Amino acid sequence: MKSSGSRCGTVKRTVLAYSGGLDTSIIIPWLRENYGCEVIAMVGDVGQGDDYTAVRHKALATGAKKVFVEDLREEFVTGYLWKAVQAGAIYEGKYLLGTSLARPVLAKRQVEVALACGADAVAHGCTGKGNDQVRFELTYKALAPELRVIAPWREWSIKSREDALEYARKHHVPVPVTKKELYSRDQNIWHLSHEGGPLETELGEPPEGAWKLTKNPRKAPDREERVKIGFDSGVPLSVDGKKLKPLVLLATLNEIASANGVGRTDLVENRFVGIKSHGAYETPAGTLLHAAHHELEALCLDRETFHYKQHVALKYAELVYFGQWFTPLREALEGFIQVTQRRVAGSITLGLYRGNIRVLDRQSPYSLYDTSIAGFTMGADYDQRDAEGFINILGLPLKMEAMKKQKAETRN
Protein backbone atom coordinates (compact mmCIF):
# COMPACT_ATOMS: atom_id res chain seq x y z
CA MET A 1 0.00 0.00 0.00
CA LYS A 2 2.44 2.61 -1.26
CA SER A 3 2.09 6.33 -0.77
CA SER A 4 1.35 8.39 -3.84
CA GLY A 5 3.26 11.39 -2.48
CA SER A 6 6.53 12.53 -4.08
CA ARG A 7 8.16 12.91 -0.66
CA CYS A 8 8.75 9.18 -0.14
CA GLY A 9 12.32 8.30 0.72
CA THR A 10 13.31 11.87 1.66
CA VAL A 11 12.74 11.62 5.40
CA LYS A 12 15.27 10.12 7.78
CA ARG A 13 13.60 10.49 11.18
CA THR A 14 9.97 11.19 12.04
CA VAL A 15 8.32 11.85 15.38
CA LEU A 16 4.77 10.51 15.41
CA ALA A 17 2.02 11.72 17.75
CA TYR A 18 1.15 8.26 19.05
CA SER A 19 -1.84 7.08 21.07
CA GLY A 20 -1.82 3.34 20.53
CA GLY A 21 -5.21 3.45 18.84
CA LEU A 22 -6.03 2.01 15.44
CA ASP A 23 -4.80 4.87 13.24
CA THR A 24 -1.47 5.59 14.92
CA SER A 25 -0.79 1.89 15.44
CA ILE A 26 -0.69 1.21 11.72
CA ILE A 27 1.15 4.44 10.90
CA ILE A 28 4.41 3.17 12.42
CA PRO A 29 4.82 0.26 9.97
CA TRP A 30 3.36 2.40 7.17
CA LEU A 31 5.99 5.10 7.67
CA ARG A 32 8.81 2.58 7.70
CA GLU A 33 7.43 0.84 4.63
CA ASN A 34 6.72 3.96 2.56
CA TYR A 35 9.27 6.50 3.77
CA GLY A 36 12.01 4.13 4.95
CA CYS A 37 12.54 6.37 7.96
CA GLU A 38 13.21 5.88 11.64
CA VAL A 39 10.05 6.40 13.67
CA ILE A 40 9.98 7.89 17.17
CA ALA A 41 6.66 7.70 19.00
CA MET A 42 5.60 10.58 21.27
CA VAL A 43 2.82 9.69 23.69
CA GLY A 44 1.24 12.66 25.50
CA ASP A 45 -0.61 12.01 28.74
CA VAL A 46 -3.38 14.60 29.07
CA GLY A 47 -5.44 12.44 31.38
CA GLN A 48 -6.65 9.63 29.11
CA GLY A 49 -6.03 7.09 31.84
CA ASP A 50 -4.26 4.67 29.48
CA ASP A 51 -1.81 1.94 30.47
CA TYR A 52 1.27 3.75 29.21
CA THR A 53 3.57 0.83 29.84
CA ALA A 54 1.47 -1.23 27.45
CA VAL A 55 1.31 1.64 24.96
CA ARG A 56 5.11 1.97 25.04
CA HIS A 57 5.63 -1.76 24.49
CA LYS A 58 3.16 -1.77 21.61
CA ALA A 59 4.89 1.10 19.85
CA LEU A 60 8.26 -0.61 20.14
CA ALA A 61 6.82 -3.95 19.03
CA THR A 62 5.36 -2.40 15.88
CA GLY A 63 8.61 -0.75 14.82
CA ALA A 64 9.20 2.46 16.75
CA LYS A 65 12.86 3.17 17.42
CA LYS A 66 12.14 5.09 20.62
CA VAL A 67 9.08 6.03 22.65
CA PHE A 68 8.66 9.16 24.73
CA VAL A 69 5.80 9.15 27.24
CA GLU A 70 5.24 12.75 28.34
CA ASP A 71 3.10 13.69 31.35
CA LEU A 72 1.37 16.86 30.13
CA ARG A 73 -1.54 16.92 32.57
CA GLU A 74 -0.39 19.81 34.75
CA GLU A 75 0.57 21.92 31.74
CA PHE A 76 -2.72 21.06 30.03
CA VAL A 77 -4.79 22.15 33.02
CA THR A 78 -2.95 25.31 34.07
CA GLY A 79 -1.78 26.50 30.66
CA TYR A 80 -4.83 25.70 28.55
CA LEU A 81 -7.96 24.66 30.47
CA TRP A 82 -7.78 27.41 33.07
CA LYS A 83 -7.23 29.98 30.32
CA ALA A 84 -10.34 28.73 28.54
CA VAL A 85 -12.34 29.05 31.76
CA GLN A 86 -11.05 32.58 32.30
CA ALA A 87 -11.97 33.41 28.71
CA GLY A 88 -15.41 31.83 28.98
CA ALA A 89 -14.55 30.03 25.75
CA ILE A 90 -17.45 27.86 24.57
CA TYR A 91 -17.69 27.04 20.87
CA GLU A 92 -21.11 27.72 19.34
CA GLY A 93 -22.60 28.10 22.79
CA LYS A 94 -22.31 24.42 23.75
CA TYR A 95 -18.93 22.76 23.13
CA LEU A 96 -16.42 23.18 25.96
CA LEU A 97 -13.46 22.48 23.64
CA GLY A 98 -12.08 19.34 25.31
CA THR A 99 -10.35 17.95 22.23
CA SER A 100 -9.55 21.36 20.77
CA LEU A 101 -7.61 22.45 23.86
CA ALA A 102 -5.64 19.21 24.11
CA ARG A 103 -4.24 19.31 20.58
CA PRO A 104 -1.94 22.33 20.90
CA VAL A 105 -0.29 21.03 24.09
CA LEU A 106 0.27 17.63 22.44
CA ALA A 107 1.59 19.11 19.19
CA LYS A 108 3.84 21.52 21.10
CA ARG A 109 5.52 18.70 23.00
CA GLN A 110 5.77 16.64 19.81
CA VAL A 111 7.67 19.49 18.18
CA GLU A 112 9.95 19.80 21.21
CA VAL A 113 10.74 16.07 21.05
CA ALA A 114 11.36 16.27 17.30
CA LEU A 115 13.81 19.15 17.66
CA ALA A 116 15.60 17.46 20.57
CA CYS A 117 15.96 14.21 18.61
CA GLY A 118 17.13 15.84 15.40
CA ALA A 119 14.07 14.69 13.46
CA ASP A 120 13.29 16.21 10.09
CA ALA A 121 9.57 15.40 10.10
CA VAL A 122 6.51 15.06 12.31
CA ALA A 123 3.45 12.91 11.64
CA HIS A 124 -0.07 12.52 12.98
CA GLY A 125 -3.01 10.16 12.52
CA CYS A 126 -5.76 12.70 11.92
CA THR A 127 -8.15 12.16 9.04
CA GLY A 128 -8.50 14.59 6.15
CA LYS A 129 -12.11 15.42 7.06
CA GLY A 130 -11.67 16.47 10.67
CA ASN A 131 -10.50 19.44 12.70
CA ASP A 132 -7.52 17.81 14.39
CA GLN A 133 -5.30 17.84 11.30
CA VAL A 134 -5.60 21.62 11.32
CA ARG A 135 -4.87 21.91 15.04
CA PHE A 136 -1.74 19.76 14.86
CA GLU A 137 -0.36 21.26 11.70
CA LEU A 138 -0.92 24.91 12.56
CA THR A 139 1.01 24.27 15.76
CA TYR A 140 3.84 22.69 13.78
CA LYS A 141 3.98 25.67 11.46
CA ALA A 142 3.93 28.16 14.32
CA LEU A 143 6.65 26.47 16.37
CA ALA A 144 8.90 24.66 13.86
CA PRO A 145 8.11 25.57 10.25
CA GLU A 146 11.23 23.77 9.06
CA LEU A 147 9.83 20.35 9.99
CA ARG A 148 8.18 18.31 7.25
CA VAL A 149 4.63 17.20 7.96
CA ILE A 150 3.40 13.72 7.10
CA ALA A 151 -0.34 13.11 7.21
CA PRO A 152 -0.87 9.47 6.15
CA TRP A 153 -4.66 9.78 5.90
CA ARG A 154 -4.12 12.27 3.08
CA GLU A 155 -1.64 10.03 1.29
CA TRP A 156 -2.45 6.37 1.61
CA SER A 157 -5.17 4.35 -0.09
CA ILE A 158 -6.89 3.44 3.19
CA LYS A 159 -10.38 4.90 3.04
CA SER A 160 -12.19 3.48 6.08
CA ARG A 161 -11.72 1.95 9.51
CA GLU A 162 -12.35 -1.43 7.92
CA ASP A 163 -9.42 -0.85 5.57
CA ALA A 164 -7.28 0.18 8.52
CA LEU A 165 -8.20 -2.98 10.42
CA GLU A 166 -7.28 -5.08 7.42
CA TYR A 167 -3.91 -3.31 7.12
CA ALA A 168 -3.28 -3.94 10.83
CA ARG A 169 -4.10 -7.63 10.42
CA LYS A 170 -1.72 -8.04 7.49
CA HIS A 171 1.11 -6.32 9.36
CA HIS A 172 0.45 -8.14 12.65
CA VAL A 173 -0.44 -4.97 14.52
CA PRO A 174 -2.72 -5.61 17.53
CA VAL A 175 -5.41 -2.93 17.88
CA PRO A 176 -8.08 -2.47 20.54
CA VAL A 177 -10.77 -1.49 18.02
CA THR A 178 -12.90 -4.10 16.28
CA LYS A 179 -15.53 -3.83 13.56
CA LYS A 180 -18.18 -3.97 16.32
CA GLU A 181 -16.99 -0.76 18.00
CA LEU A 182 -19.71 1.84 17.40
CA TYR A 183 -18.04 5.10 18.37
CA SER A 184 -14.83 7.02 17.87
CA ARG A 185 -13.88 8.46 21.24
CA ASP A 186 -11.35 10.97 22.54
CA GLN A 187 -10.72 11.30 26.27
CA ASN A 188 -8.66 13.51 28.51
CA ILE A 189 -8.95 14.93 32.01
CA TRP A 190 -11.44 17.56 30.76
CA HIS A 191 -13.87 15.52 28.68
CA LEU A 192 -14.87 12.41 26.74
CA SER A 193 -16.19 12.83 23.21
CA HIS A 194 -18.23 10.36 21.16
CA GLU A 195 -18.55 10.48 17.37
CA GLY A 196 -19.48 8.09 14.61
CA GLY A 197 -21.76 5.08 14.84
CA PRO A 198 -25.46 5.94 15.29
CA LEU A 199 -24.54 9.60 15.83
CA GLU A 200 -23.67 9.91 12.13
CA THR A 201 -27.15 8.92 10.93
CA GLU A 202 -29.44 9.87 13.82
CA LEU A 203 -29.86 13.46 15.02
CA GLY A 204 -32.03 12.68 18.03
CA GLU A 205 -30.97 11.87 21.56
CA PRO A 206 -27.79 9.75 21.63
CA PRO A 207 -28.28 6.15 22.77
CA GLU A 208 -27.72 5.76 26.50
CA GLY A 209 -24.91 3.33 25.73
CA ALA A 210 -22.91 6.15 24.17
CA TRP A 211 -22.36 7.88 27.52
CA LYS A 212 -19.52 6.62 29.71
CA LEU A 213 -18.57 9.20 32.34
CA THR A 214 -21.83 10.66 33.56
CA LYS A 215 -24.73 8.98 35.30
CA ASN A 216 -28.07 8.96 33.52
CA PRO A 217 -29.83 12.06 34.95
CA ARG A 218 -33.03 10.06 35.34
CA LYS A 219 -31.17 7.63 37.60
CA ALA A 220 -29.13 10.20 39.51
CA PRO A 221 -29.84 10.73 43.23
CA ASP A 222 -33.23 12.29 43.99
CA ARG A 223 -31.66 15.03 46.09
CA GLU A 224 -29.80 18.24 45.35
CA GLU A 225 -26.07 18.26 46.04
CA ARG A 226 -24.37 21.54 46.89
CA VAL A 227 -20.84 22.35 45.77
CA LYS A 228 -18.95 25.56 46.45
CA ILE A 229 -16.24 26.52 43.96
CA GLY A 230 -13.65 29.17 44.82
CA PHE A 231 -11.71 31.31 42.33
CA ASP A 232 -8.86 33.79 42.42
CA SER A 233 -8.12 35.92 39.33
CA GLY A 234 -10.60 33.74 37.47
CA VAL A 235 -8.63 30.57 38.24
CA PRO A 236 -10.36 27.70 40.12
CA LEU A 237 -8.69 27.20 43.49
CA SER A 238 -10.99 25.39 45.91
CA VAL A 239 -13.95 23.07 46.34
CA ASP A 240 -16.18 23.47 49.40
CA GLY A 241 -13.66 25.82 50.97
CA LYS A 242 -10.68 23.47 50.61
CA LYS A 243 -7.81 24.55 48.39
CA LEU A 244 -6.85 21.82 45.96
CA LYS A 245 -4.12 21.30 43.41
CA PRO A 246 -5.36 21.63 39.81
CA LEU A 247 -5.47 17.91 38.98
CA VAL A 248 -7.15 17.03 42.27
CA LEU A 249 -9.64 19.86 41.87
CA LEU A 250 -10.65 18.66 38.42
CA ALA A 251 -10.91 15.04 39.54
CA THR A 252 -13.06 16.07 42.51
CA LEU A 253 -15.49 18.11 40.40
CA ASN A 254 -15.61 15.41 37.72
CA GLU A 255 -16.74 12.91 40.36
CA ILE A 256 -19.36 15.22 41.87
CA ALA A 257 -20.84 16.33 38.55
CA SER A 258 -20.83 12.87 37.00
CA ALA A 259 -22.69 11.36 39.95
CA ASN A 260 -25.46 13.94 39.44
CA GLY A 261 -25.77 13.47 35.69
CA VAL A 262 -24.23 16.87 34.96
CA GLY A 263 -22.02 17.52 31.94
CA ARG A 264 -23.70 15.89 28.95
CA THR A 265 -23.84 17.83 25.68
CA ASP A 266 -25.44 16.64 22.45
CA LEU A 267 -24.78 18.98 19.56
CA VAL A 268 -24.47 19.49 15.84
CA GLU A 269 -21.37 21.60 15.28
CA ASN A 270 -19.69 23.32 12.36
CA ARG A 271 -16.27 21.83 11.75
CA PHE A 272 -13.47 24.08 10.54
CA VAL A 273 -13.36 22.20 7.25
CA GLY A 274 -16.97 23.15 6.55
CA ILE A 275 -18.74 19.91 7.45
CA LYS A 276 -21.47 19.73 10.05
CA SER A 277 -21.02 16.86 12.51
CA HIS A 278 -23.12 15.33 15.26
CA GLY A 279 -21.32 14.52 18.48
CA ALA A 280 -21.90 13.79 22.14
CA TYR A 281 -19.59 15.26 24.76
CA GLU A 282 -19.20 14.65 28.48
CA THR A 283 -17.50 17.48 30.38
CA PRO A 284 -18.58 17.16 34.02
CA ALA A 285 -16.11 19.39 35.86
CA GLY A 286 -15.88 21.82 32.97
CA THR A 287 -19.63 22.38 33.00
CA LEU A 288 -19.52 23.32 36.68
CA LEU A 289 -16.47 25.56 36.29
CA HIS A 290 -17.86 27.51 33.35
CA ALA A 291 -21.21 27.98 35.10
CA ALA A 292 -19.58 29.18 38.32
CA HIS A 293 -17.05 31.41 36.59
CA HIS A 294 -19.75 33.11 34.53
CA GLU A 295 -21.75 33.90 37.67
CA LEU A 296 -18.68 35.30 39.41
CA GLU A 297 -17.89 37.54 36.44
CA ALA A 298 -21.47 38.81 36.44
CA LEU A 299 -20.88 39.87 40.05
CA CYS A 300 -17.41 41.38 39.68
CA LEU A 301 -17.19 42.96 36.22
CA ASP A 302 -18.72 46.27 35.23
CA ARG A 303 -21.37 46.18 32.50
CA GLU A 304 -19.24 47.39 29.58
CA THR A 305 -16.37 45.01 30.34
CA PHE A 306 -18.73 42.10 30.97
CA HIS A 307 -20.58 42.66 27.69
CA TYR A 308 -17.46 43.21 25.59
CA LYS A 309 -15.80 40.15 27.09
CA GLN A 310 -18.65 38.02 25.77
CA HIS A 311 -17.62 39.03 22.24
CA VAL A 312 -14.01 38.19 23.05
CA ALA A 313 -15.08 34.81 24.45
CA LEU A 314 -16.78 33.89 21.18
CA LYS A 315 -13.70 34.77 19.14
CA TYR A 316 -11.37 33.06 21.61
CA ALA A 317 -13.42 29.86 21.40
CA GLU A 318 -13.39 30.01 17.62
CA LEU A 319 -9.60 30.43 17.53
CA VAL A 320 -9.15 27.43 19.84
CA TYR A 321 -11.55 25.30 17.81
CA PHE A 322 -9.83 26.28 14.56
CA GLY A 323 -6.42 25.28 15.92
CA GLN A 324 -5.12 28.84 16.13
CA TRP A 325 -3.77 28.72 19.67
CA PHE A 326 -0.26 29.86 18.76
CA THR A 327 -1.33 33.01 16.95
CA PRO A 328 -0.78 36.72 17.66
CA LEU A 329 -4.55 37.29 17.88
CA ARG A 330 -5.10 34.60 20.52
CA GLU A 331 -2.19 35.97 22.53
CA ALA A 332 -3.53 39.52 22.23
CA LEU A 333 -6.98 38.44 23.40
CA GLU A 334 -5.26 36.65 26.26
CA GLY A 335 -3.84 39.96 27.41
CA PHE A 336 -7.31 41.52 27.50
CA ILE A 337 -8.74 38.53 29.35
CA GLN A 338 -6.04 38.56 32.02
CA VAL A 339 -6.78 42.21 32.80
CA THR A 340 -10.48 41.43 33.19
CA GLN A 341 -9.72 38.62 35.63
CA ARG A 342 -7.79 40.68 38.19
CA ARG A 343 -10.80 40.98 40.48
CA VAL A 344 -12.74 37.88 39.50
CA ALA A 345 -12.32 36.28 42.91
CA GLY A 346 -14.66 34.70 45.39
CA SER A 347 -16.93 31.68 45.44
CA ILE A 348 -20.08 30.41 43.77
CA THR A 349 -22.25 27.73 45.32
CA LEU A 350 -24.09 25.52 42.85
CA GLY A 351 -26.95 23.10 43.37
CA LEU A 352 -26.80 19.94 41.23
CA TYR A 353 -29.89 17.88 40.62
CA ARG A 354 -30.39 15.24 37.93
CA GLY A 355 -28.41 16.95 35.19
CA ASN A 356 -29.39 20.48 36.15
CA ILE A 357 -27.43 23.31 37.77
CA ARG A 358 -28.73 26.29 39.69
CA VAL A 359 -26.92 29.03 41.58
CA LEU A 360 -27.42 28.95 45.35
CA ASP A 361 -24.99 31.63 46.52
CA ARG A 362 -22.53 34.25 45.24
CA GLN A 363 -19.72 35.74 47.33
CA SER A 364 -16.85 38.05 46.35
CA PRO A 365 -14.77 40.74 48.06
CA TYR A 366 -14.87 42.56 44.70
CA SER A 367 -18.60 42.33 44.18
CA LEU A 368 -20.06 45.38 42.41
CA TYR A 369 -23.52 44.58 43.69
CA ASP A 370 -24.46 47.30 46.18
CA THR A 371 -27.60 46.84 48.24
CA SER A 372 -27.78 50.58 48.93
CA ILE A 373 -28.57 51.37 45.30
CA ALA A 374 -29.88 48.06 43.93
CA GLY A 375 -33.36 48.44 45.41
CA PHE A 376 -36.26 50.71 44.41
CA THR A 377 -35.93 53.01 47.42
CA MET A 378 -34.45 56.49 46.93
CA GLY A 379 -30.91 56.80 48.29
CA ALA A 380 -28.11 59.33 48.57
CA ASP A 381 -26.01 57.59 45.91
CA TYR A 382 -28.79 57.40 43.32
CA ASP A 383 -31.44 60.04 42.90
CA GLN A 384 -34.10 58.59 40.63
CA ARG A 385 -35.04 62.10 39.47
CA ASP A 386 -31.69 62.29 37.66
CA ALA A 387 -32.95 59.67 35.21
CA GLU A 388 -35.14 62.24 33.43
CA GLY A 389 -32.21 64.25 32.09
CA PHE A 390 -30.31 61.10 31.20
CA ILE A 391 -33.24 59.73 29.21
CA ASN A 392 -33.81 63.08 27.48
CA ILE A 393 -30.20 63.26 26.28
CA LEU A 394 -30.14 59.60 25.26
CA GLY A 395 -33.44 59.95 23.42
CA LEU A 396 -32.64 63.22 21.66
CA PRO A 397 -31.56 61.60 18.34
CA LEU A 398 -34.72 59.47 18.34
CA LYS A 399 -36.88 62.48 19.09
CA MET A 400 -35.34 64.60 16.32
CA GLU A 401 -35.71 61.81 13.78
CA ALA A 402 -39.36 61.27 14.72
CA MET A 403 -40.13 64.99 14.46
CA LYS A 404 -38.57 65.27 11.00
CA LYS A 405 -40.46 62.17 9.88
CA GLN A 406 -43.75 63.70 11.07
CA LYS A 407 -43.06 66.97 9.19
CA ALA A 408 -42.27 65.06 5.99
CA GLU A 409 -45.47 63.07 6.28
CA THR A 410 -47.44 66.29 6.84
CA ARG A 411 -46.02 67.87 3.67
CA ASN A 412 -46.97 64.80 1.65
Q: Any chance you could write out the topology, listing elements then pairs?
A:
Blueprint: E1 13-17, H1 22-35, E2 38-45, H2 52-61, E3 66-71, H3 73-87, H4 98-117, E4 121-123, H5 132-143, E5 148-150, H6 161-170, E6 184-187, E7 192-195, E8 225-232, E9 235-239, E10 242-243, H7 246-259, E11 264-270, E12 276-282, H8 284-300, H9 303-321, H10 328-340, E13 346-353, E14 356-363, H11 371-374, H12 387-411
Parallel strand pairs: 1-2, 1-4, 2-3, 4-5
Antiparallel strand pairs: 6-7, 7-12, 8-9, 8-13, 9-10, 11-12, 13-14
Task: Describe, in plain words, how this protein is organized in 3D.
- It is a single chain.
- With 412 residues, the chain is an alpha/beta fold.
- The chain has 2 domains: 13-181, HUPs (Rossmann fold); 185-301 and 344-363, Argininosuccinate synthetase, chain A, domain 2 (Alpha-Beta Complex), CATH 3.90.1260.
- It has helices at residues 22-35, 52-61, 73-87, 98-117, 132-143, 161-170, 246-259, 284-300, 303-321, 328-340, 371-374, 387-411; strands at 13-17, 38-45, 66-71, 121-123, 148-150, 184-187, 192-195, 225-232, 235-239, 242-243, 264-270, 276-282, 346-353, 356-363.
- Strand 9 and strand 10 form a beta hairpin.
- The longest helix has 25 residues, at 387-411.
- The radius of gyration is 26 Å and the shape is elongated.
